[in-house]
Amino acid sequence: MVGLAPLVLLTILGWAALLITPVPWILPILLFVILNFAGAVGDMYTVIWLLRKRERVFVRDFGNRMCIYGLIEAQGIIQQAGGNENKISGQDYF
What we know:
This protein has 2 domains: 1-52; 55-94, no CATH class. Helix content is 44%, strand content 17%. The protein has helices spanning 5-20, 26-39, 41-51, and strands spanning 57-61, 66-70, 86-88, 91-93. A hairpin with a 2-residue loop joins strand 3 (86-88) and strand 4. The longest helix has 16 residues, at 5-20. The two termini are 22 Å apart. Residues 85-94 have low confidence and may be disordered.
């Protein structure tokens, strides 16, 4: 959800600015809001995709790629993916 914070805040500020700015500034502010929204399409897709997951996941964002960790139902076998394993509250994460 944090990934959508710039979209939400800048959109609210942009629409509020449209109400109080002079007419010559309306087009640049509207263009700013539209470009901000267009730039956040990937963020919106990722958040919607993650919200549809039934299990809890941990996402580590590297800027140009993401690493997604999720719970494993391990029955005596520790599974490992990506070279890391962590023990968090008795559950195995990969």
